[in-house]
Amino acid sequence: MSLKQLIQKSKKQDLKSQSEIYQLFAGKLFALCVKYSKTHHEAEDNLQEAFIIIFKKIEQYKFKGSFEGWMKRIVINTALQTYRKKKVLNLVEENYPDEVEVDVNEEDVSLDFLLRIIQELPDRYRMVFNLYVLDGYSHREISELLGIAEGTSKSNLSRARVILKDKVELNQQQQNVGLF
Known about the structure:
Blueprint: H1 3-11, H2 15-35, H3 40-57, H4 67-86, H5 111-119, H6 123-134, H7 139-146, H8 150-179
Helix pairs in contact: 1-2, 2-3, 2-4, 3-4, 6-8, 7-8
């Protein structure tokens, strides 16, 4: 059965089709939840909540644009709502340079290490970093999603980059010390 057929049947509350959509996309969407969640358990909760919303609102999907992209927006918004409800996002206005370059030697820094240090960022920085760098949102879109000023989005991104740069450099220094 094609994805379009699955979506059409899901719009009619066909549980088998909804289950197939879940099976097709749960893995990718869970990875997205992990980026926006503090813990594995919280990511699971966000994924479940997002799928409830996806199936409640599936009749709103009009086959314009990517279905996966449509679902990703719901997942991100669901994770952000979780933070808004918990009032975890204490976004602050800070002045940092707009662009911080991070020189990464790919042989010395693993993807797992990068993902771990991104996950360790304070919530306000991780959210902005993920939205801007990993998911391609503009500062204007981020400001609307998080209810912050564009300048705050820019400064939080810059601060996230400074923190990541420091951690990457420290990691590289520690590896270089181990060579001697």
